[in-house]
Amino acid sequence: MDEISDQYLQIRRQFGDFLEKEHLFPGLGTFTYAKQLEDMYEQDDFQSKVYRLKTPRLTILEHHLREDNPALFQQFLDTPVEVLPAFEDALKQYVLSGVEPNLVSALNDAGKDQLYIGVKGNFGRHEVSPRDLTSKFLNKLVCVYGIVTKCSLVRPKMVSSVHYSEHTKTFTTMQYRDVTANRGAPTLATVYPQYDVKGRPLTTEFGLCRYIDNQVLHLQELPETAPAGQLPSSVEVVVEDDLVDQLKPGDRTAIVGILKPLASRVNGSSPAVFRSILVGVSVQKLTRDSQALVSIADAGHIKDISRDPKILDLLAASLAPSIFGHDIVKKGLVLQLLGGAEKVLEDTKTHLRGDINVLLVGDPGVAKSQLLRATMVVAGHAVSTTGRGSSGVGLTAAVTTDSETGEKRLEAGAMVLADRGVVCIDEFDKMNDQDRVAIHEVMEQQTVTIAKAGIHTSLNARCSVLAAANPLYGSYDRTISVTRNINLPDSLLSRFDLLFVMLDACDAAADWRVALHVLRQHRYRAPGDEGRGPQPVESIHDQSYSSGMIGDAEEDEEEEEDEEGGGAGGQGRGGQGRGMNANNTSHNDGVVGTNGGYDSSKRRRSIWLKADTRVLNA
After folding, report:
1. For 135-291, CATH number?
2. Where is the composition biased (Acidic residues) (predicted)?
3. How far apart are the C-alpha atoms of 399 and 130, rounded to whole Å?
4. How would you class 416 by CB atoms within 10 Å of its CB: exposed for 0-12, middle for 13-18, buried for 19 or more?
5. CATH code at 296-504
6. What digits encode the pLDDT tens for the residues 303-342?
7. 97, 286, 528, 550: least surrounded by Cβ within 10 Å?
C-alpha cells in the first residue's frame, strides 16, 4: 500500500476515534456526535416507522477537533481536499456500524449513498472577507463572511452517466468530476462518449444518470467593512446538494469552503491569470445577535447608562455632537436606530413592522446630509444611496442575465442589502415617480416581490428608511402645506412615521450661537487633527462642562458689570440675585443686544477672552 493510502487510512481512523469521543456542547451537555446524528432525520407525520432524511451533512464544531487533535485540525485547514474525503468515509462507516439505524433507513429511502461533513466555529487567520482571498488561501479551508448579492437558479449537475451498447447489450457507467468536486481529481472527459473503445456506438440513458443540485452564489463583502472609495469585492461560491436554496439575496452569511483556482479558456487556450471560486462545505446564516460582540466591561457600562433617567437626552447629544441644535431630530434618529418590536398577528398572520421610517425636509445647509452620515456611522448595518443615482430596481431587486452561462439571476438592491439595518436615501426629492413607487411595498410590508423573466419570489427588506429631501422651490415656504413643498404623494408620506421640517431661520441670535459652537469645536485644534477619539463612559457627564462654557462666561461678565455699574438691585459677585440698570446689556438665552449706547463689541470681546481662558485652563 503506498504512502498516500496509508495517510488516508490514518486520517480516517483518527476521525473515527474523534466521533466516538464525548465532547462538550454549549448549553446541551457532554455526549458523542452520535446524538447529533438524530438531527439529520425526522419521523414521518403519517407513518411512525418511516423516517425522512433532513440533511446528509453532519456539522462539527471546530474547537472540538482542534482540542482533540491539533495536528489533524491544522492538516484539515491546509489540505482539505485530501482530508475531507477521509472524514466523510469515516462518518459513513460510523453510521453503518449500527450507531443510528434510523438514519440508515432514511438514507436508503432517500436514495442517498453519500454523507457530508460541515464545520463551523472560529477559524482564526482563515476567517476572512472576500477582499482578503488572495493566492495564499488557494486549496485551503477558509471561512468567508459577506452578504449574498446574486443567486442563480438551482440546476442539476451530472455526477455519473450511464451508456448502453446495442452490440454487447451492456451498460457502461462513467464518473464525472469537475474542479468543484471535493473528492478525487477532475476527470478528463467533459462530453458524453458516443463510441466505446472498439468504435461501437453508445446511447446515453439520461434517466439512469445520477445528478445532484448545483447553485452559484455571489458573496460580497459587508458594506460597513468595505474601504471608503473602493468598489466592494466579491467571490463566486458554488454550493451543491443539501446546501442549495438555503440563501437568497440580502442574506448575511458565513460560508466555510475550499478556495480553488479556475481557468478561463480564451480562444481555446488558458491564460496565465486564473479566477478563484469558493466551493462551499457549510453555510451559516448570520443574525443580528450573532454579530453583536460586547465585552463584559462594555456590558457593565451599558447597564450603568441605562439607569440614567435622561438616557434619551444623553444618546441624542452623543449623536453627531458637532452639529448644533436639532435636539428633537436627533432624538427621533436615536429611536430609529433602536427600533421597535415587530409583531405577527395570530389570527390573520399579518406582519406589523417594528422599524421606524424618518423623513428630513428642510432648507439647504441645515445639516440633513450630515445627520444621515452620522446615522450611518452609528448604525451597525447601513446602506447609503442617493435619489438621483438610484433606480427602482437598484433600490429593490433586479433579474439579470449571466454573461457566461446566459442564465437568469436574481440581484439584490440597496434595500434588500440593508435587511435588518438602515438605508439612507439622500436627495429623496430627486427620484422619479416610477422609481419612487417601487419602495412603497418595502416601507410598509418590508418585502420585495419579484415577478420577472419566469422568476417569482419575495425577498426580505426589513430595514428602516432615513430619507432627506429639499423643498421644491429651493427654500421651505411656510404658507403652503408640506405635501406641496416637497412634491411627494400622500401615499408615500403616510409611510414615514416621523417627518421633521428643518428650517434655516433668519435669526442673528441663532447664527451667533452656531458660530460659537463651531469655533469651540475647531478653534484650538491642530492642523490635520480630526478630533478626539472615543471617550470612556465615565467621562460622558464631564462633557457637559464645555457645552455650558459660553453661558458661564456671560453670567460672570454680567456680574462684573453689576459690580462696576451698580444701580438699583445690583449685587456683587457673591450675591444671590442679579440686577441690571438702564445702561446694562440685557440678554436672553444667548441673545446679545444693546441699550443706552452700550458698546456690544467690548462685551463680545470679553466673552471671547473668558471662553479662551477657560479652554486653555481646561
Report:
1. 2.40.50.140
2. 552-565
3. 23
4. buried
5. 3.40.50.300
6. 888 888 888 888 888 888 888 888 888 888 888 888 888 8
7. 528
